[in-house]
Each structure stands twice: as C-alpha cells, then as structure tokens.
Specification:
transmembrane, alpha+beta, six-stranded antiparallel sheet, nucleotide-binding, six-stranded mixed sheet
Length: about 625
C-alpha cells in the first residue's frame, strides 16, 4: 500500500534476513488476514549483568508516523525475574499505563519462565517504556537478573512457557496495521469469517473488538480507499471483469472455430475428407494439420524461421510436436484468387496426388492445413538450400565440381521422368528452375515447389492455361500458344543444364553487352558459332572431360529446340545423362541434319523486354 510495508533483504551474522525497511526490524511472518506482521523485537528492559540502570527506563522502537502499532489483541506485556515490579509506560515521562509483580523466589533454582508475570497492553500503542523496581529480596545474581518486554502470545509453547528472552536478546512481537472499530463484533449471515459493522465487512472478529484491515485516518493520504469497503468492491469488480473476460474468450473461441470451419470448407476440406475415406489405403500418406499446430511449429510465423520467398509464397522452417523438422509453405494472399478460379475438385486431387509421390529426388508432401485463409502445405525439410545458390554463390570450401553437376542433372532428369511417366497420373511441374531444386544433407537433388503444377489424364498431351512461370525458363511455344506439354518442362530443364554449364543466370543485367538478353540466346549463338568453350564456367573447363561437357551441351541444345516436337522426352534425357556418366568413351551426340531454323532465336519470345510488350495474359515470377 505504501513504502512503509517495503521489505528488504539484509546480511546479518546469522545470514540473510528480511527486514521491514521503515522500522528496521527483522520480519518473521505476515498474517495479512489479521492485519499484522510478526517481528523480532529487542528486549525493552534488562538488568542482567548491570546492562541496565534500575533508575532508567528501557524504551521500545518508535512506531509513530508508521502504519504499525503494538497489537493489544495478540501481544502481552511480560516480565521475567524474581521479586520485581515491572512497569510499562507510554514513554519515559508519562505515568504508568500498566504493570505486574514478578513472583517471589524462595529457592536457589535457576530462573525460568515460571518466574514470569504477564499483563495486557492498551490499544494502539505506538511506543512504550519499561522498568523494573525491586520489591523482594533475591538470593543470588541469577535471581537479580530480570527483563521486561512486549511479546506475541503465539510465542508461548503448549505448556504456556516462553523461552527466556534475555538469553536471545529479542522476542517475537506482533505489529498491527488493522483498524479496530468501536462497535461490537457482529457475524455476517452466521459466518465466522466475516464481520459487519456500520456496513463494513472486515476480515476477522477478534476478542472484544472488530479488527478491520484498512487504513487509519492519519495514513489516508497514502491510500485513501478504506480497504474494508474497497476490498468488497474490488472483489465484485474483479469477479465481474473475470466473467466478462471468460465470456469474451468463449465468444472468441466460438468465432475462431466458425472461421476455421469456413476456411476448411472453402479450401475443399470436405471434399478432401471424402477422397481420403474412399481411398483408405492412402489415408496415412497425407495428414490434415491443425492451424494451431503449425503456428507453434513456426513460432507463429516468426521472421527468423523464413527459409525462402518465391512467387507462390513464403516457406518457413518448423518443428512439429513429435520433434520432426518440416518446411511449411504459406501461400501469398493473392493466390487465394487463383485458387478460387480453379476447380476445387482439381486442387484437392492434386494435393492427394502430390502426397502420393514417392521418389528419392522429389520433395515429399506430408500434408496440408485448410483451416487458414489460404492453404498451408507441409513438406519434408531439405537442409542445404537451393541449386541456384550453389551455382551463383560459389563456396571456395565446397566447390561445385563437374561430377556434382553431372550427378545433380541426372537426378533432376530422373525426377521429371518419374513425374511425366512413372507416377500414377502424369504431372507437369510447370516451374522447373534452379531455385526450385533443393539439396539434401548429401547434396542430392530434390525437385520442389509444385504450386502451379498440373496433373493430366493419361491420354492428354497438354493443358491449356494462361502463361505462368519464371522469366528465362519459359518455353517459347507455351508462351505463344498457352498450351503446356511435358516438352515445356524439358525446355526449362535445358535452361538449368545451361546454368550448370556456364555458371550464369538465365537473365542478368550484369552480363556483357553481347550476352544481354537471355542466357539461352547467348548459349545457342555460341553453339552455332562453335565457341562453346569460351562461355563455360571455369570449374567445368578445368575438371570436366571435353567429351562429357560437349555431350551435355548438345543435349541441352536439343532440350532448347524451338520446335517442341524435336525436343527429347525426359525419359530420353535421363537415359542419355546416365549414359554420359557411366560410359568410358562418350559418343558425342550431334544431329548433323538439324535444321538451323529450329535453333533460330526469336527475340520476341526469349528477350525479357519482348515479353512485357505482349498482350497475352501472363503471370511472371522473378528469378
């Protein structure tokens, strides 16, 4: 309530002790419901070993100008000794306010608390003095030793005895801060725990007075509200606020549940559940995550958990409750419009299909969350970043060797071959690029990000969509016709091959004047001019066998054929790369009969500035 109640920790010869700072006395206990504290109080008067002149009075601590006073309810004035009259005064100059006569001692027995007199003290005593006056003859030095003090009655043991206080130099004493009211004690509703006087409900009914734990008038400036009235009012207010808060939280939870149900239904949750129940053998292959689980897994989508940002959304690193590490893709809000334009059944089917993909070079989809504004996809976590970073941010301590480039190329090709031909339903990735190729702990390639992928019927040869992809990787025929085929993925893979060969980005403003435009244009011109080895990455030139490098370059040229019908399939690409890796004597594949027009560069398609002037509906991602 104010600084008078402040407790500090201080060092003593007996170790650290709590002290009430305002009166510098050791705090023993607090009895809040009784409005009192118990302190270790020094012996007020003692004439042992001539420590006190009989003609002088011992004076207690002065509690004036503090909220405390010596409790007349819990304390008594006591004196230990033989043949003395113990007197208590309000101060050194006032008349006595009480006293008691010690028993006469007629033996040589040691002094004990049986040789003690006790009397009550007046109410609201804030200071006092004490003295002993000899009345009877004592037999020895011990018998002449006596003391006087105010002590707490709780200090008496079961036999009504008190440990001789002058042997310790202090005694337990109760200080009250409660306000005794003059009215007699009245029980409220027959309960013994409350009292009622003049409309005030107080903590305790004690003795002949009503103890109310509240402020006194002279301390009202420190805390003006009557604690007795204020406590009952505050309890009622707190109870009302608690009820309002619980009602608010209940409504909040109800609204949150309704909103999650709305999102779940809108995002196709009911349809997904039907698909799972009708396909019981695959139920365990996809999990529907709760939004709260993913919030906790990502530390509520903390910025520090972001693994990457892309055209489709943000990817966070998360830890599930079972301790497994995952990557959680949170779509951009704008993607909600795209999702709404898609057929709901198609989206759900794709989620199920992707969850069933099982290939060592494809990132595994573990499940999804449909309780949020836009769906969240949960993938296995791949620790070593992207192929793009490995190519364009070289690490001297871990260089990208030719053997690694060839192996990674083969792994990507095998993954795309699986998606196109070996999966239960053919899948077109539609966004193959080096930043969508992840590298695991052993730097094995993992194709990722199926945000715009499409599954097709086995008899289908293409899907017709508005152009959507990444600048520098787009198939020119797809750009012109809006028809995406498996050969469109082949073209994008060809761009990745050229990146691995040259170490350059598909589109880069840092290239020289003759290289500006697209990397594909520059590569094909170099092939045509027979200057391939002038543009290769130095690491490739130093480590790669000339026959292997040439073979991969011609394979990349075939993948980039402007006529999609003359591009190889991913099966053929994968087999050719495997052959290059395992063959002792590589036969360079050159199609001498190729029509040069097939490789003629159309600047309206491959140049980025040509794209911006086209009227076709296009969604382009940055590299």
């Amino acid at each position: 309530m104010n600084d008078a109640f402040r407790v500090s920790c201080e060092e003593t010869i007996d170790g650290s002790k709590p002290f009430i700072s305002s009166i510098n006395l050791t705090l023993v206990d607090v009895k809040f419901s009784e409005g009192r504290v118990i302190i270790n109080n020094s012996i007020t008067y003692s004439n042992c070993n001539n420590h006190q002149d009989d003609r002088k009075k011992g004076v207690s601590v002065n509690l004036t100008n503090t909220p405390f006073y010596f409790s007349d309810i819990f304390n008594r004035f006591g004196s230990v000794g033989c043949g003395n009259f113990a007197t208590i005064y309000h101060n050194q100059t006032d008349d006595p306010i009480g006293g008691c006569l010690q028993p006469s001692c007629n033996s040589n027995a040691n002094l004990s608390t049986n040789d003690m007199c006790i009397t009550s003290i007046p109410p609201r005593l804030d200071t006092f003095a004490a003295s002993l006056t000899k009345k009877y003859r004592s037999y020895d030095g011990n018998r002449s030793c006596g003391s006087a003090f105010v002590f707490d009655m709780d200090s008496l043991d079961n036999d009504g005895l008190l440990t001789v206080p002058h042997t310790k130099g202090h005694v337990a004493t109760s200080l009250q801060w409660g306000k005794p009211l003059p009215a007699p004690c009245k029980l409220k509703d027959g309960k013994k725990t409350f009292c009622n006087s003049e409309g005030h409900y107080c903590w305790s009914c004690l003795s002949r007075e009503l103890l109310c734990v509240c402020s006194d008038g002279e301390y009202s400036s420190a805390y003006s509200v009557d604690v007795c009235e204020g406590c009952s009012t505050s309890i009622g207010t707190i109870f009302a606020l608690l009820c309002i808060w619980r009602l608010f939280k209940a409504l909040e939870r109800r609204n949150d549940i309704k909103l999650k149900q709305k999102y779940f239904k809108r995002n196709g949750g009911l349809l997904l559940q039907q698909q799972l129940s009708s396909n019981e053998g695959n139920v365990e292959k996809i999990k529907l995550f709760a939004s709260k689980e993913l919030e906790k897994a990502t530390d509520y989508y903390n910025e520090n958990r972001i693994l990457g940002r892309g055209g489709q959304g943000i990817v966070y690193k998360g830890m599930l409750t079972d301790g497994s590490i995952v990557a959680i893709k949170r779509s951009k809000l704008v993607e909600k419009k795209v999702l709404e334009e898609m057929k709901l059944e198609q989206f759900i089917n794709e989620v199920i299909i992707l969850s069933q993909i099982n290939h060592r070079n494809v990132v595994k989809l573990l499940g999804c969350c449909l309780e949020t504004n836009v769906p969240l996809l949960v993938y296995e976590f791949i620790p070593n970043g992207t192929l793009s970073d490995l190519i364009h941010k070289p690490n001297e301590e871990f260089p990208l060797t030719w053997e690694m480039r060839l192996r990674i190329s083969t792994e990507i090709a095998n993954a795309l071959f699986y998606l196109h031909s070996a999966a239960s339903v053919p899948i077109y990735h539609r966004d193959i690029k080096s930043s969508n190729i992840l590298l695991d702990d052993k730097y094995r390639a993992k194709v990722s990000d199926f945000g715009i992928s499409r599954s097709v019927a086995i008899e289908q040869t293409h899907v017709t969509t508005r152009v959507h992809g990444t600048l520098g990787y787009l198939d020119p025929e797809y750009f012109r016709s809006n028809q995406y085929t498996e050969k469109s993925d082949v073209y994008s893979f060809g761009v990745v091959l050229v990146e691995l060969l040259t170490g350059q980005k598909p589109i880069s403003s840092s290239q020289s004047v003759e290289q500006r435009g697209s990397l594909v244009t520059f590569f094909l011109h170099s092939m045509k001019a027979n200057s391939l080895f002038d543009i290769l990455d130095p690491q490739v030139m130093n480590e790669g066998p000339r026959e292997e490098v040439t073979a991969v370059s011609w394979l990349a040229k075939r993948c980039l054929n402007i006529n999609r019908n003359k591009r190889p399939t991913m099966k053929q690409v994968a087999m050719e790369l495997e052959r290059i890796r395992t063959s002792d004597e590589t036969n360079v594949l050159q199609e001498q009969s190729d029509d040069e027009e097939d490789y003629e560069i159309n600047d309206d398609v491959t140049d980025p500035w040509g794209i911006s002037s086209c009227s076709t509906m296009v969604i382009i991602d940055n590299i």
